[in-house]
Structures are given as C-alpha cells and as structure tokens.
Design a protein that fits this description.
By secondary structure, the protein is of the alpha/beta class. The protein is 46% helix and 9% strand. Helix 2 runs parallel beside helix 4 and helix 11 packs across helix 16.
C-alpha cells in the first residue's frame, strides 16, 4: 500500500451526487447509469473514504411515501454500519424542482418560501437520523435574471429569517447541528445573492445564532469569481468559521466544472493544502475534507472510482510536498529574512503610550528597505521545483 493511498483517518468524504453523477450536461444525455446509494457507499469505503454526504433527494426520491422513505433509510443505515462509513454533512435540494424557479427562501411567493422551510426541516430530520452534525446551505436558485423583480434587501431579509428559523428548529430538536453557508457568484441564476465567502461571513454576523453558522467554501465557486480560494479560506479560518469545505478543480472564467481536485491550478491546490494542514505553522483545519466534484463525461463506472481515488491521492501528495516545502532550509531562510524580533512585539501587542512612543522614536531607513530585494522570485521557483519533484 502506498503512503498516498487514502484511509478513513484522512477524513475524506464525497457526496452521493458527486460519484453518482451520470455525466449528463445541458447538451447531452447521461453516459453512465444512475448508481444505487448503497453501492456508492460500499465502493467509497473500498476506495478509502471515511464518509458520504447527501442532499435529501439523493437518497429519498422526491415525492416518496413515508413507508418508502423508512425502507430506503433503514437499508442505507445498515450499509453505513456494515462499511463503517459516516454521514458528516447533509443538505437540502432547493434547486431542482420547478417550484424553486425563482428561488426558495428568497422567492417572492410566500407559499414557495413556506415549502422551502418545510422541505429543509424534513431534510434536517433525515440528516439527524443519519448522524450528520453539519448542515450545508447552497442557494442555487437564490438569485435573479430580472433584478427588477424584488429589492435585494428583501431577499437578504428573507434569507436571514430562514436561517434564524432553522437554527431554532435545530436547537428545539437538540440536533446539535452547525450550519455552513456556501457561496457562488452565478449559475444557474444570472446573479446569485451572497456570491462570495466574504459576503457570507458578513451575512452571518447579522444572524441571531451566528455562533451556529459558518461557511462551506468551494474551490470552483471562488475561482469562477476570479478570486484566490486560499485567501477566502484563510479569512474563514481566521474568523473560526470554516465549518466545512468543498474541494474540486476549476479553470478560470469557465462554467462550474467540478473537476477532480488538483487537476487544474496545481499551485493553487498546493497553497490550499498547505493552509488547511498548517504546515507553515498556522492552526490546522480538522473538519471533513469533502470532494464536491465528478468524473469526466468520458468515463464509465470504473473511471468514476479512478476519479475518486485521484482526488484523495492528490490531496495527500500535496500535503507531503507542503511539509517538504516548509521544512526546506532555503524556504525557511527566505521567509525568516524579513522578521525582526525587536520590532514585531511592538506591532502585535496592542496599543500603549510606551509602544506609541517607541514607534514614533524609531529610526527607519526607508530608502534602504525599499532598495532591498525580497527574493520572492527564488521562493516561488522553489515552490515550483517542489511541485515538479526535483526538490524535497
């Protein structure tokens, strides 16, 4: 067994909708059969994943009777027990059914908003039954094509009302869930409300139960907006709001591709893993590492499991490379060159009259500092050489 082969302790998870994606797209029919959820769980366990996540209708088809749901869930729970797999996260599909064509929680129609709450509460019941302690909200239809249809402030208030209500529902039922909000700039709507992780973080600060609510950033969604994913994740981590994360690959400026993790922008993927694993010395993320991606349309089922293994192996390879990079003496020296043990405490210890006096009296040769090269070209080349395998 290779050191890069995934094991359950790695905390890797996939959604039923990810490996279960049949390869359908707006221009072509499915190229693979729909896979039974129990089969997916067993195959993911064989691949080394630790858990599986789901939308309500990934497991229980829309419109199923109570008896049919009980049968499906009972069989699924047995498969989880047999394989040792868990369900760390659950979510609700509030975007596929035509009733959500103008949004769910933000719809102008109060009956739609009521149905969205009803469907989410029932999905939370299902998630709790399966042991999920994280609940993700992606507002796939929470947006507009015709902006004149509503005041955006009304949409945000409706979203706020829904989150406040559902937090209380979780508390009232002792579910112990934390909520994670997922941003996306566009698609399937022309404009989606709260389009980036930064928007979500501010929105969370307006909620009644903000301590229960964090974010679930996704690589593709931030890259679609032309943003650095690692920077957005770092902001969430700095706020203690990184509750969950969606890993995949994405080409800048494209539609939401959900490619295999690391298959695009290896440098970006490396910097993300370095951040999540804390190899530079920062706090490590210890939540689920969820791959929200799917196999190429060119693949049969065997290719789906190649895709799943590839996501996990790439993460582990990049983790090893991050460890090697941050322990490379040349890297350590370049980063340490600019640190000044005498000055740093004055900048991080907060205000005092004495500190202000020290700073005002400091003789700083700005011309000498401005003339000094920082060796970042060398640092970046070292990163590239580690990624290419010629250092380490």
């Amino acid at each position: 067994m290779s050191s890069f082969d995934p094991i359950k302790q790695d905390r890797f998870t996939f959604g039923l909708w990810t490996v279960g994606n049949p390869g359908r797209d707006p221009f072509g029919e499915a190229v693979r059969p729909v896979l039974d959820p129990n089969h997916i769980v067993r195959k993911l366990a064989e691949c080394g994943a630790s858990g599986v996540n789901l939308h309500d209708n990934d497991l229980v088809p829309f419109g199923s009777s109570a008896g049919e749901q009980d049968r499906i869930v009972s069989e699924f729970k047995k498969t989880l027990a047999d394989t040792g797999m868990t369900v760390p996260m659950a979510t609700t599909n509030l975007f596929t059914h035509p009733v959500f064509k103008d949004g769910a929680f933000t719809s102008n129609d109060p009956k739609v908003r009521a149905f969205a709450l009803q469907k989410t509460m029932r999905a939370m019941d299902l998630g709790a039954e399966l042991g999920a302690k994280l609940y993700v909200f992606w507002g796939g239809r929470e947006g507009t094509e015709a902006d004149a249809c509503r005041d955006p402030r009304s949409a945000l208030q409706r979203m706020r009302d829904a989150m406040d209500f559902l937090c209380e529902y979780s508390k009232d039922n002792d579910y112990g869930m934390r909520f994670a909000l997922e941003a996306k700039p566009n698609e399937p709507r022309s404009e989606i409300y709260l389009p980036t992780t930064g928007h979500m973080l501010h929105f969370i600060s307006t909620l009644k139960n903000e301590e229960m609510v964090g974010v679930n950033p996704e690589v593709a969604h931030e890259v679609m907006a032309g943003l650095s994913f690692a920077h957005n994740v770092a902001q969430a981590m700095a706020c203690d709001k990184l509750f969950h994360i969606d890993l995949n690959g994405q080409k800048m400026g494209r539609y939401d591709q959900d490619l295999r993790f690391g298959s695009e922008d290896l440098k970006g993927a490396f910097l993300l893993v370095r951040l999540l694993e804390g190899t530079l010395g920062g706090k490590r993320y210890d939540g689920p590492l969820h791959f929200d991606a799917h196999a190429y349309r060119s693949e049969d089922e065997a290719g789906v499991w190649d895709f799943a293994k590839g996501c996990m192996r790439t993460y582990k390879i990049l983790h090893e490379k991050a460890l090697a990079f941050d322990s490379d003496p040349d890297v350590v020296a370049i980063i340490a060159e600019q640190n000044d043990a005498a000055i740093d405490p004055l900048l991080t210890g907060g205000y005092s009259k004495e500190t202000a006096s020290s700073l005002l009296g400091m003789d700083i040769d700005v011309d000498a500092i401005a003339a000094r090269g920082l060796r970042y070209e060398r640092l970046d080349q070292l990163l590239v050489e580690h990624l290419l395998g010629v250092r380490g």
